[in-house]
Amino acid sequence: MQSGPFPVAGLGIISTMITPAVLILAAGNLVTSTFSRVIRISDRARVMMGQYDAAKKEGRTGATALYAELLVEYRKRSVVAERALSSFYLSIGLLVMASLAIAVDRLLGDRIPWVPVALTVMGAVLLLVGVLSLFIETRISQGAIRREIELHEKHRS
Fold this sequence. Notes:
Blueprint: E1 2-3, E2 6-7, H1 8-58, H2 61-107, H3 114-155
Antiparallel strand pairs: 1-2
């Protein structure tokens, strides 16, 4: 059956290829926001290192200990956020491969339908891993912010 210059089956292939594309779009948005988080973590850690050095010079041992503890948390945050970013990049790669595998499967007469399904599932799992990593990073972040506020309140006067 024909519909204009393209066979209907060709349109079905393109429609099927859209499913991974939606997940690719979601992963791309998460890459952008996660990359921004990594930059903010790095900037904040650099500021914290300066505060640590200043507190150490001034002999404020309590502040020095807290800054050292917070820097450990910034290191954890950066590792977790980088893991999320890597997961999102790998997810995008797998989902692009899934989209291409759909086309190849159709061209081969639906002989390898498990390949695009497996690639899509793996891409979605990596998307989930990245989201869970961001959840963990957010929890670490909130704990660090609470400790910074405590330090500020303690040394405000």
